[in-house]
Amino acid sequence: MRSKSKTMLFRSLALHSVLVPLALLWLLPLWMMFVFATMSDNAIFSPDIHLIPSTQFGENFAKLQGDIDFVRTLIVSVVVAVIYTFFSVALTSMAGWALARYKFLGRGLVVAIILGTMTLPYFVVVIPQFIMVARDFGLSNTWFALIVPPLFNSLGVLFMRQAFSLMPVDLFDAARVEGVSEWKIFIHIALPLSRPMLAALSIILFLHSWNNYLWPLLISNDRSMMTAPVALGSLFGLIDVSWGGVMVGAVLLTVPMLVVFVFLQRFFMAGITAGAVK
Amino acid sequence: MRRRNLTAYGFLSPYLLIFAAFWLWPIIYSFYLSFLSTRRAPWTFNPSMTWLRITQDTAFYNALWNTLKILAIQVPAMVFLATVLAVLLNSQLLRARGLIRFAFFAPVVIGEAAYAAVFRLMFNTDFGIVNKTLQAIGLSKVDWFANPSAAMSLIIMAVTWRWVGYNAIIILSGLQSIQTDVYEAATLERVSPRQQFFHITLPLLRPVLVFCFVLSVIGSMQLFAEPYLITNMGGPGGATETLGLFLYRQGFLNLNFGYASAIAYTIAALAVAISALNMWIGRDRT
Amino acid sequence: MASVSINQVTKQFGAVSVIRGANLHVEDGELVVFVGPSGCGKSTLLRMIAGLEDISSGDIHIGDTMVNDIEPGDRGVAMVFQSYALYPHMSVQQNMSFGLRMNGNEKADTERRVQTAAKVLQLKPLLARLPKQLSGGQRQRVAIGRAIVREPQVFLFDEPLSNLDAELRVQMRVEIARLHKELQATMIYVTHDQTEAMTLADRIVVLRDGLIEQVGSPLELYHNPANAFVAGFIGSPRINFFTGVATEYAEGHQLVQLSGRGSAVAKVATTEALPSGTLIKVGVRPEHFEIGGACGFPIKVDVVEQLGSVSYLYADTTSEYPLIVARQDDGDHRSDELTISIRAGKALLFGADGNRLR
């Protein structure tokens, strides 16, 4: 018989001696992002190792702003993400409600098509999407092009279908007996009761849109309608670019999401794992 | 009941309209496109310029090979690491849980452009912190952007850094859905923690692990932004050019939509096949 | 208020028949209880009246209106659910007024109705609370209040008390009986608890496997069950069944020799003689035994339940249905070996098909 407390102590030490260094390693790129953002380009490209933030954040921001008017691209990104999230939540929760609440002709088919085609890579649709929006409609560099095509995302449909089907049917039946219309049942009962789910879904969708890279890269190459990640990426290949400035851009892209992540971690985790359980 | 059918379609149709226009129709259209020669107008039916060409294009095989390398190395390594992480993070003994979880989960929210920029600087050949550290401990520096295998390792490291936490979250939730009384019963029957892990935890986690594998396979097949942004569009000399990047080059730089569609369908077929293989290997054998 | 009639109503879920031709007329102002074991179709029948389930064939009238194709909200019914079905995000006040508000009822009228219902149910101090801040009994009262506010033609109750503990259940039972008296409303009430049915109902409808077995007043069902199933279902503790063989018939009484009980004989008034030797099922309620007697049989008491006013003696406890005998004294009869006999004229006879032989 070994002593229980000794075993525990040994296990705890082993656990932390693995996890702590690994965690520090994982934090390093994030930390370096902030450090780089505060260093002058000369300091970044110098032979010394810098691990402590410096003081050049303002200067770097000014250079970035001079290079690509980053604030404007951030505004585009925010507007796109907010509108996209709103519409995606609205459309997909309505669809999820229909699939969870009603037995209707073709329900199985709709679910099968959505589930089946979602396993196909995005590449299969991006070319026709591009031809349709850019060439046929001539809508490159518009809000429509940035916001509407990505609304196909069915994550919310599956997510909200799950949420609604877990609610007790009696609630909706009670309202039905009271003569409340189906639309009002949806608005006044189903939606308010799924607030945590809606929050989780909104966070995930906002993040999707905020970080979306390929579609905005294809469809929005005009300076006035560029999203922030695309604008930042466009600097990488240039010779005469301020890397301190680029890192300021990276920080500005990342910090809002980190704040959301820290304060709404519960919803965030729910959003990620809900995709896994289906 | 007809009235309820109508109500259901009323709720469904706005989404369905978008879904049909921007997902269902494009799937069909790109299949049609994959048989067209689109190099010059007017587009003509000519599968030899798409499907036949794909079988002969060395650039395609290079991209396929690179993608398979990432698939074979990065996916198993990452799922393994994510499993270990999830088990460790689930430990009752863990201190500073919030901070340690933050370290692994934070990369999940970081966009490709932002982290690509950091990795470029950290792995910079002359001034990056990685090479400086290597030299400080007496190793020679690595030319991460000019050496083909080093560039590939860089992509693999970057993708793993970004996605391991995501997978760990999923596996962690799988772990936490296992009833604790199963372990209590096993402990009372003198089953060791190691045996518990291999005979209880792993079998119960299997569906979740299969899910992670499938998700990562589909993700890797679509890898685009990392080689585009970190290794300068698949450099050096195409050593990190993935199928996604190859498709981007054909479709959106050369504007050869027909060929790109054939590539897209090839990627889709491979992704489905490899996912199916994963599911078959991880199937319920009982 | 209105009557409800159900004519030849059936319900199929795919190949499964849940209701197999039900006929019933509920009078205006009557409280009718549907009772039966789980899966007998009683809840389905109630939900068909509410309009929450489609009717496969037959028709349902509320008042003079055929309601088969009328939406639930337009049928003039109110329903109380087993789960209460209170909207968790709304206060008591909002819960009660929700239906009226959504249908554009005049504000002052809605408020008046809520206040009246709250007064009747002593909910006034709770109006601002959320459902999660209420006890089970209070939630049930809110659910009932929500039904009252609608001023419906018919109240429907779907096992409303099964989520409450025993004491509250008795309380709420009395409360519902009082409400029925006060509102003079037509009420249809579903339960699997025969005590609830006995205490509340004007008439009881006993269902089994989608068929109505018997309709009648509580005492009618108790004293005059139409078949062995109703006899077994109504009455607590349960009726005792014996197998027996018909012997003589004299002076309007049939004698039945109980099998395996020595010389025990049951004497039952019937209209005509049974052929001698007919196999019969004999039902005897626990209070219809007496100690001693001429044609008795011996039992050994295994367990005694002393309830104060009455004691129940259990014998043959290893068999599926123990023999239960009621006694009006407080003595400890455990391990007693007694001779008991059936009170003259108190047994019920059933044929091999389970139907009552009168």
TrEMBL record, chain A:
Top-level taxon: Bacteria
One matching Pfam family: BPD_transp_1
Domain ABC transmembrane type-1 residue range list: 74-264
Transmembrane regions listed in the UniProt entry: 74-97, 109-131, 143-164, 185-210, 230-263
SUPFAM superfamilies: MetI-like
Topology in the lipid bilayer: Multi-pass membrane protein
Signal peptide extent: none
Keywords: Cell inner membrane, Cell membrane, Membrane, Transmembrane, Transmembrane helix, Transport
UniProt xrefs under Gene3D superfamilies: MetI-like
UniProt-annotated location(s): Cell inner membrane; Cell membrane
InterPro entries assigned: MetI-like, MetI-like_sf
Record-stated family: Belongs to the binding-protein-dependent transport system permease family.
Biological role stated in the UniProt entry: Part of the ABC transporter complex UgpBAEC involved in sn-glycerol-3-phosphate (G3P) import. Probably responsible for the translocation of the substrate across the membrane.
Assembly notes: The complex is composed of two ATP-binding proteins (UgpC), two transmembrane proteins (UgpA and UgpE) and a solute-binding protein (UgpB).
Name of protein: sn-glycerol-3-phosphate transport system permease protein UgpE
TrEMBL record, chain B:
Annotated Gene3D superfamilies: MetI-like (1.10.3720.10)
Keyword Transferase: no
Native species: Devosia rhodophyticola
Residues spanning the membrane: 12-32, 70-90, 102-124, 144-164, 204-225, 257-281
Domain ABC transmembrane type-1: 64-278
Domain of life: Bacteria
Signal peptide: none
Family from the record: Belongs to the binding-protein-dependent transport system permease family.
Pfam families: BPD_transp_1
Key word Transport present: yes
UniProt entry keywords in alphabetical sequence: Cell membrane, Membrane, Transmembrane, Transmembrane helix, Transport
Protein's recorded name: Sugar ABC transporter permease
SUPFAM superfamilies assigned to the protein according to its UniProt record, in alphabetical order: MetI-like
Membrane topology: Multi-pass membrane protein
Compartmental location: Cell membrane
Automatic annotation (TrEMBL), chain C:
InterPro entries: AAA+_ATPase, ABC_transporter-like_ATP-bd, ABC_transporter-like_CS, ABC_transpr_MalK-like, ABC_transpr_MalK/UgpC-like, Mo/tungstate-bd_C_term_dom, NA-bd_OB-fold, P-loop_NTPase
GO molecular function: ATP binding
Pfam families linked: ABC_tran (PF00005), TOBE_2 (PF08402)
Record SMART domains: AAA
Keywords: ATP-binding, Nucleotide-binding, Transport
Residues covered by the ABC transporter domain: 4-234
PROSITE patterns registered for this protein in UniProt: ABC_TRANSPORTER_1 (PS00211), ABC_TRANSPORTER_2 (PS50893)
Membership in a protein family: Belongs to the ABC transporter superfamily.
The protein's name: Sn-glycerol-3-phosphate ABC transporter ATP-binding protein UgpC
The species this protein was found in: Devosia rhodophyticola
